[in-house]
Amino acid sequence: MARCPICGEALKWEELIEQMLTLENFSELLADKGAFISAFEEFIFMCPHCKEEFYGKHLEIKEAEKVFELLNDFKGGIDYENKRVKLKLTNLLALDMMLEEWDKRVKR
Length: 108
Known about the structure:
Elements: H1 13-20, H2 26-29, H3 33-42, E1 44-46, E2 53-55, H4 61-73, E3 78-79, E4 84-85, H5 89-107
Antiparallel strand pairs: 1-2, 3-4
């Protein structure tokens, strides 16, 4: 799961995405995976633990791609008015990754 590249504390994906909701075109970014990942990599996040800033490119891009898919799968997961993510993205991501690993083991 995502960790702050500076202090190493675990980060919640829903909090990271909420920081990105400040982008005026965020809802448009969800229509294009490439544009979303590009904006994610260049976005400056702030760690809620150490309060230091870092670029998204220092986080796991594969996880960001899965978060993009989850946000598109659950269309009502973002409250744009209040700039809140209603989904527990970190939990959904963990579940998704566990299921993928399970599928790999079953197919062996």
